[in-house]
Fold:
Amino acid sequence: MLELENVTVRYDGVPAVVEVSLDLPDGEVLAVLGPSGCGKSTLLRAVAGLETPSDGAIRWDGRDLAGVPTHKRGFALMFQDGQLFNHLTVARNVGYALRIRRTRSSRVAERVAELLALVGLEGYAERLPATLSGGERQRVALARSLAVDPRLILLDEPLSALDAGLRERLAGDLREILRSAGTTALMVTHDHEEAFTVADRLAVMRGGRVVQAGGISEVWRAPADPETALFLGYARVLRGEAARVLLAAAGLPVAPAVAVRRSALVAAPDGPLTGRVVSGRATPEQVRLVVEVPGVGQVDAVSPLGLHPGPGEQVSLTVEAAKLATLPGA
Amino acid sequence: MKSSRALSALAALTTLGLTVTGCSTVGEESSDTSTDSSVVLVTHDSFVLPKALKKKFEQESGYDLVVRASGDAGQLTNKLVLTKDDPIGDVAFGVDNTFASRALDAGVFAPYSFDEPAGAADYALPGDDDHRLTPVDNGNVCVNVDDTWFADHDQAPPKTLDDLTDPAYQDLFVLPGAATSSTGMAFLLATIAAYGEDGWQGYWSKLMDNGAKLTAGWSDAYEVDFTQGGGSGDRPIVLSYDSSPAFTVPKGAKTSSTSALLDTCFEQVEYAGVLEGAGNVDGAEAFVRFMDSPEVQAALPESMYVFPVVDGVKLPSDWARYAVQPTDSYAVDPADVAAHRDEWLRDWSDITSR
Amino acid sequence: MTARTRWSNRTRWSSRTRWSSLSRPLALAGLAVVPVLVLGVFFVLPVSGMLQLGFWADGSFDPGAVLEVLGRPRVHRVVWFTVWSASVATAVAVLLGLPAAHALHRLRFPGRDVVRAALLVPFVLPTVVVGVAFRQLLGEAGPLGFLRLDGTAVAILAGLVFFNVAVVIRVVGAAWESLDPRPGEAAAALGASPAQVFRTVTLPALRPAIVSAASVVFLFCATAFGVVLTLGGLRYSSVETEIYLLTTNLLDLQAAAALSILQLVAVVVLLLVAGRLRAVPDPEVSRVLARPRWPARGDVWALTSTLLLLVLVAAPIATLVVGSLHVDGDWSLGNYRALTTNGTHQALLVPVTDALVTSLRTAVDATWMSLSMGLLVAFTVTRRSRSRAERRVRRGLDGLFMLPLGVSAVTLGFGFLITLDEPPLDLRSSPLLVPIAQALVALPLVVRTIVPVLAGINDRQRQAAASLGAGPLRAVLTVDLPVVWKPLLAAGGFAFAVSLGEFGATSFLAREEHPTLPVVIYRLIGHPGPMNYGMALAASVVLAATTTVVMLVVERLRVPSVGAF
Structure:
């Protein structure tokens, strides 16, 4: 179990991570989510032992890791672009940690084959990294990280260098692989979809601090503040009167602010709200609208493909309570 | 952002480049290009004459003097030999009596006689019957001793070549090697003259057995190992010149702290000569005469550390008092040197590197 | 095998997208023509002239006599000593230089830049002066006399390392500086200790740079002249000293030619081996500027070794400085004041200060000459080849420009005199001869510093620039220049230093009335008179200080963000 207690990391006196406290129980995957420059990578590097915290403690199973060098921590680190060893073949990359530990070569070969199978790269053993695609390289990097069953695997934006479709597929694979290996993992990312797909728990970082932490759905349902809500994929945050109108329409108690997902308002004949369509755009699954609702202002809404109200038309809207998140006063 | 920074850096570098072109030698007008009105002197690194004398020559002869100085006497000679069909100048100075035969054999120099000042003829190169080379200066390579060291150690300094192999002087002698130093070569020739073409090898064996130390060049031996040199050497006997004692007079003292052993000397004479195929023969001859003029002869000791060959030239006071010239030096026939240099050096290398 | 497949794939691909097929070889030839011509006139021609004199003794072709020389036992001894001393010195220089390259290019600590510049100083000091300084340390009466190293092979090795370790630090440091630290971090996280990270990740990535540096250092060591003579007490001869002796003292051109041929063959073999060792599967590297970090506990060994090196370099220099501040056994600035004069009794043609100006001006010329030629060569050599033949031509070019390092300055100097004597090449007395000769000596260093970097640029970046409408020149400016900028400065500093310190070829060439500083120092130290000796030391200190200042300025010129391009 990894514990971070009031960890602060400074670069030349400028704090990059401020008093971060987090727990990561064995077998869980924790995603640290935040915009670039929020200090999440620094936090990861501190856990890996590549940066020295100026304050606070990082502990593993209760033992303070201060002074323990990177290579003795028993963790594995996987970077955004894999950072494979270009001069070694795929097999030698994957078997690297095993050979470092002087494992018998027959055992290395066995384990490498196993891992390549796990990441779906059978037959790639003798290729050089330069001949692989981005997705393949990440798979090799993952296999390499898993080779010695690390106590903890640290993932630094593992998928963000890949294109969208591949990212989605690999995120699912990554989750599968981590689950089946039973590995504890700490992942940092700026992509909430990636975090939702891979992780069990979420910590949101901003300005070097963790602003919210908890289970995925917990965080997702109740963002700590408007900025967090927006970062988690909510389309808008409404306050005051607008919030009151919307919550009332959803049948929810009044709150000072509410975060609204894009698909929270749906055009339907008998909806409690009405508004005038400002613009509309069809996507393969639904029509995305911007609607001017009196008392609320411009909001996003969707309508089924069959119903495509033109600009200027009046539409009725229902509100899906599950796609709203009430926020404390801000 | 990044590229603009690179651009500004590039601009800075260009500006720097432009300012610096002022420091370039390209496009600089070469004042030394030879023209019809110039005479080109080919000489070695050690050639120096006061500016006033150079001006005097130019005024009196009507020619500009262009000096091409590089390398030592050996390089100079070989350079002249290699370029004899298309000489690199009109006149040469600095070929000495150990290399002169090679130059004469190759036909580098043209005959030129003039009414030499008294004394110069005494230094004429043996075998130079057509008078192709004119003696300009001379100096002796002699073993020098640190008198203060021997006084401090209550020991009499050595006097002769034989003394140097005496166990009393074990590990006290340092000298530059013959293969790498013209000074060292002169000492080898002294021993050949002293012990004969078959006897010098035995002498050198004894010398080396007695702990003589070889260095690459004169400066190494004198400045590093000699007790009176620039450093903190520990050997009080060194191979140097007959003029060296003039440079080791302590401030306020009346005597030099070192002296040259006058029975161990080999005489070196440097010559000037008109090059065969010279473009400006008239200018070349004027320069040869100039080198034997009283003013140049008087300037030689302080400019080039050598003695004049012409009689009656006044020496600098330090030289007159402390630099004693031997009356009788060892000499080897230049023709013999030319014929055997290779063989002698090879034998010498074998003996000394054993 | 896989690497080759990929290579040819890319070649096919790029040939479709790049300039039209006819203009390409022409453009390449155009790029290379200037440096090749310069090399031809100022190197190949003079050297062949000297070889010809050796082979055609007495007007008839007589290769037998030349080959006979190679059978002499003395030649075998000389060759063995040359190879042995150069190999050992190279190995030591690499072993000492690597930790220092790490400390001086990956870490930051107060005074780092000064140390970096100071370690380059030996590179410019005239061997004759350093020889004296070394011997004052090591000699029987010196502070290190108890080691009994004077006149031993160990002293020669120490001297060679002293002069050449800067090459390792610079060449490897430049590569190390822009090495992505993340693979190493990943390896550490996988359980590799710092030593294992170094061995399995860092070292393979640095291999091209190390091989480059080592091959240059080997050539410098194998052709060292003054160090072998001065520190070896005449007991050791290398091929270089032997050629010198044969040419200047004995005028035995046949033997000299034989040894010169041997040198050339050895250089070619060395280059082939180095080329093999340098080849890496994927020359393209991601260039990031790793933030230099403060030293950590694990850096102790690197810092210690840098300190050791600093002592090795500083000790002889300190001897020089102390000596230069003494007149007649007392502390004094007299030697420095004397530098503006012509020496006691007009010992010099020009004051030392004038010689310094000449040296600097010559160095400026030599630097721009070698940089521009080096850039042209590097660009030509690193372009992707379309065919095997084209690649071979490029490799040949690459090697051709290393040759000047492997040829004796004496051979070159005499060669100049006998071949450059007729119009249109009547250049024997051109004032440009000295900077050109020095530029040729510096050229291999420039090429070796730039080539690995240029080879690391992804060709697709140039294609991208071209597709955005950039002409070939503009593409080079936007893609190559920003990356090459910093190594180019490093190479420029190198070339400048080489030129400032060059003595062998310079002393040989007609210098007319403008001797360079090393020549003046040589003359001062070679003549009696305590003042001359002191002035020689002072002049050397001035030369060393000038070099340090120039190097510091060059370091400052470095664009800090360059690695982020």
Observations:
- Chain A has a mean pLDDT of 88.
- Chain A has two domains: 2-230, 234-327.
- The longest strand of chain A covers residues 14-24.
- Chains A and B do not touch (no CB pair under 8 Å).
